[in-house]
Structures are given as structure tokens and as C-alpha cells.
């Protein structure tokens, strides 16, 4: 019996070696080099207080970036993330100002506001079969219009009599570390464990890399 041998053309890239390592860690290397350069130019840049201030000022952006990383890993996009944040803030404000709920309930209401936006996106994408770009863009228009109606044209809303514990979530500190930084680090750990140490994370990346192959392999991408 003759033996059939198939040869695949070499692409010039391997799964190991310096180039493969650089492709995986290149962004981290560039970031470390930039930090070293700024630290050399100004030693204050590397101090604890400076980094605490940087992380505290970027806390919301970092939290959103972690969520967007998961979405992009699945091969999708979300243009409604801004109104999801706004809905969460509005729900928390109503809970504190109108319903006079405790601050823990206000945090739950804030999360509920974001969940509602996410469920609307899921309905449009999975049930209505609308592309994520168009679905989230439509959600952004709808939710931003609802915001303008609630705020009488987009005016700012302030509430100064909130519970100190709720206020400390933004400006407080834990063992000398700003509370937003602690929250970001905790969420980063959860996100890392979810994406790197669970089947869910592997499924998400598989769907993002090749959705059709993932479906053939039995991964339920609609979940």
C-alpha cells in the first residue's frame, strides 16, 4: 500500500522563538521601555503617589477597557459602553436621591443599569440577528435619547447628600491605596482568571478567532 504524504508550505513563522515571543509580549516590552524612559526623564514619575494618582484618574477607563477586551476577543464590538456607564450612574442616583436606598443597593442599581444595556444589545444581536456594530450603535442612540429626556436636555445632575461610604468608592482609600485602584486591581484579577484559567475564556477566544470552526467544534456561541 502506498503512503500519501501531504506537505504544507512554510509560512516562515514558528510557534516558538524570539519572534514568536516578541509578537506576544511586544506591547508589554514597549510599555516597560516607555515607563523607563519617563522615569529617567523625571524620577517623580516612578513614585508611588504618582502611580496612585494615574491609576485613580484612569480607573473608569481601565474598567471599561477590561470589559471591551473580552468583547473584542469574541470578535465583536460595543459602541454603547458610554451610555451603559451613564445608565448605571443614573440608576444609582435615582436609588439614592428618589428612593433613599442604602448605598449598597445603589451600587446594585448601578450594575443593573449596565445590565439592561447589555441585555438590549444581546437581544438585538442574538435574536434580531443584527451586526454588533449596528446593534450597539442603535442602542447608543436609543439610550442617549432616553438620557436626554430624563435630564431635560442633557444637563448635569448633582446630589451632595449621598452616604459617605458611597462617596468613598471614588475618593476614599484602603490601607493608603485609593479605593478606585483597589477596585481596578480586584477586577483585573477576576478578568485574568476568567479569560486565562476558565473554559469560558478559551471559548471566547476560539469564537473570536474563528467563529465557524468554534461552532463546528460544538461551542455554543449564542450563549
Automatic annotation (TrEMBL):
Keyword terms of this UniProt record: Cell membrane, Membrane, Transmembrane, Transmembrane helix
Q: How does it sit in the membrane?
A: Multi-pass membrane protein
Any one GO MF term held by the record is: transmembrane transporter activity
Output the Gene Ontology cellular-component terms.
plasma membrane
InterPro entries in the cross-refs: ABC_transp_permease (IPR001851)
Q: Tell me the superkingdom of the source.
A: Bacteria
Membrane-spanning regions, if any?
Answer: 21-41, 53-72, 105-126, 170-195
Location(s), subcellular? Cell inner membrane
Classification via PANTHER family: ABC TRANSPORTER PERMEASE PROTEIN YPHD-RELATED-RELATED (PTHR32196), INNER MEMBRANE ABC TRANSPORTER PERMEASE PROTEIN YJFF (PTHR32196:SF63)
Q: What family does the database annotate? A: Belongs to the binding-protein-dependent transport system permease family. AraH/RbsC subfamily.
UniProt protein name: ABC transporter permease
State the organism named in the record: Klebsiella michiganensis
Amino acid at each position: 500500500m502506498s503512503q500519501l504524504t501531504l506537505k504544507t508550505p512554510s509560512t516562515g513563522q514558528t510557534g516558538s522563538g524570539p519572534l514568536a515571543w516578541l509578537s506576544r509580549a511586544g506591547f508589554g516590552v514597549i510599555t516597560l521601555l516607555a515607563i523607563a524612559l519617563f522615569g529617567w526623564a523625571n524620577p517623580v514619575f516612578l513614585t508611588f503617589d504618582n502611580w496612585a494618582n494615574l491609576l485613580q484618574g484612569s480607573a473608569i477607563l481601565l474598567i471599561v477597557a477590561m470589559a471591551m477586551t473580552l468583547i473584542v476577543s469574541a470578535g465583536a464590538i460595543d459602541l454603547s459602553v458610554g451610555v451603559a456607564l451613564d445608565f448605571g450612574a443614573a440608576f444609582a442616583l435615582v436609588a439614592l436621591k428618589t428612593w433613599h436606598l442604602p448605598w449598597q443597593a445603589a451600587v446594585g442599581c448601578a450594575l443593573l443599569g449596565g445590565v439592561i444595556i447589555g441585555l438590549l444589545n444581546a437581544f438585538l444581536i442574538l435574536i434580531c440577528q443584527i451586526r454588533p456594530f449596528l446593534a450597539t450603535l442603535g442602542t447608543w442612540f436609543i439610550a442617549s435619547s432616553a438620557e436626554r429626556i430624563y435630564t431635560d436636555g442633557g444637563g448635569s445632575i448633582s446630589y451632595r447628600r449621598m452616604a459617605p461610604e458611597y462617596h468613598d468608592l471614588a475618593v476614599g482609600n484602603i490601607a493608603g491605596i485609593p479605593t478606585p485602584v483597589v477596585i481596578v486591581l480586584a477586577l483585573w484579577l477576576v478578568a485574568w482568571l476568567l479569560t486565562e484559567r476558565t473554559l469560558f475564556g478559551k471559548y471566547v477566544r476560539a469564537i473570536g478567532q474563528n467563529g465557524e470552526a468554534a461552532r463546528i467544534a460544538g461551542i455554543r456561541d449564542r450563549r
